[in-house]
Amino acid sequence: MNHWAFVITGYAVVFVGIAVYTGWVLARGRSLTDEVPEERRRFLD
Amino acid sequence: MTSTSSKATYVIGWAAIVALASSLLFALVLSPPEVSMGDSVRLLYLHLPTIAVSYLGYGITFLGSVIYLRNQSVFWDLLAGAAAEIGVLFTAFVLITGSIWGKPTWGTYWEWDPRLTATTVMFIMYLGYLAIRRMDLPQEVRSRRAAVIGIIAIANLIIVRYSVQWWRGLHQGQTLGVDTQLDGLMLFSLFLSVVAFLFLGAWLLIHRFRVAWLERQVEDMRLARALNERRGEAGDATLGGAVS
Asked: pLDDT digit string (tens) for B83-100?
């Protein structure tokens, strides 16, 4: 296999992984902020 | 505010995006191929920054664990947990990119080399740390046990760091040090990638910590509600008994 195939695979795995994790963290943050009243949202600004 | 974003995360997030875009340009386009490794050297600009983020994560977990055991601070407990999760994610990337890079350079995807073995042990140990944090135990017990593991597990980081010096294996020695022999543009690309990934790691850590904080609030609120309901039921039963 060409070296570029390994390079592209490596970068794709990492960036897709980061995108999936980021999406999960942001979505979870959004749904939890709806559940938690404002006075309990310390450390959020 | 209905998300975990803030002014600080906007600034760090945009810094990460700009730095990552620039680092991709340097890593994949502007930096030259290496004499013996060819274009596969470009995986270095991904492999080394990911281990930098995981080291940072585990370092914060250690610090948070020590502080938690001293003063039972919820902030440090949650920060330690968030940092460990990011450390584990980036260690997975380290193992994957290392394995992919191993094929064109060593001719194999995996070898039980000291560095690879130590990194795998570190990965498993921090997975155990995360599992303890999810155990169905009282918060204080769970946090205390996790903090103890968070302190012990830092030994792995030292073993991983020095494994290439202590034992002979396939893995190359330190990439960056006093005898670094990287070409100027390659060295710059590497530093830029490390900086970009550290911005990304910091951004992810802030968001993940805030999610952990909100999760704790929800857990506390549910516990308080359940206790109130239990008290209400007990009160009704007492009242009923008195009436009858």
From this structure: 999 999 999 999 999 999
DSSP B38: B
ipTM above 0.90, yes or no: yes
Query: Can you tell me the mean pLDDT for B232-241?
Result: 74
CA distance B83 to chain A (A): 13
Decide if A29 and B92 are in contact by the 8 Å CB cutoff. Answer: no
Residue B225 forms contact with A (CB below 8 Å): no
Burial zone of B46 (CB within 10 Å; 0-12 exposed, 13-18 middle, 19+ buried) = buried
| CA gap B65, B43 in Å, rounded | 33
User: Residue B181 in 3-state DSSP?
Assistant: coil
Amino acid at B41: V
> How many angstroms separate the most distant Cα atoms in chain A?
57
Give the Cα separation of B165 and B46 in Å (integer): 22
Shortest CA distance from B33: residue in chain A: A3
- Separation of alpha carbons B162 and B175, rounded Å: 12
Q: Which residue of A has its CA nearest to B42?
A: A7
What mean pLDDT do residues B79-85 have? 97
For testing contact with chain A, the best of B211, B223, B225 (most A CBs within 10 A): B211
Residues of chain B in contact with residue A34, where contact means CB-CB under 8 angstroms, are 2
Predicted confidence (pLDDT) per residue in A8-17, tens digit: 999 999 999 9
